[in-house]
Amino acid sequence: MREITIKVLNKNDIDELLEFENRNRTFFEKTCLSRGDSYYEYANFKSIVSELVDEQNEGDNKGFSRRNCRKSKFS
To answer: Which domain of life is it from (predicted)?
Structure first.
């Protein structure tokens, strides 16, 4: 059985998460609503993730991001 590790999202994950989002953008836009071009701009993406992390740290955010920590890539 494959081991899965769940890690809480933090601001150090921004670059890797944006890379993942860009790599999978076509898939996400086919299966979900489009986030628009501005979502993928670094400064805007950093602001979005930073706000989510701050909410998470304050206990206001119930969402989470999962990540394959063994490969150090988001899954």
So the answer is: Bacteria
Tens-place pLDDT, residues 48-65: 999 988 988 888 766 655
For residue 58, the 8-state DSSP code is T
Label residue 21 exposed, middle or buried (CB < 10 Å: 0-12, 13-18, 19+). Answer: middle
Amino acid at 37: D
Joined together, the tokens standing for residue 46 give 């950093």
The C-alpha atoms of residue 73 and residue 54 are separated, in whole angstroms, by 22
Q: Beta-carbon neighbour count of residue 49 at 10 Å?
A: 19
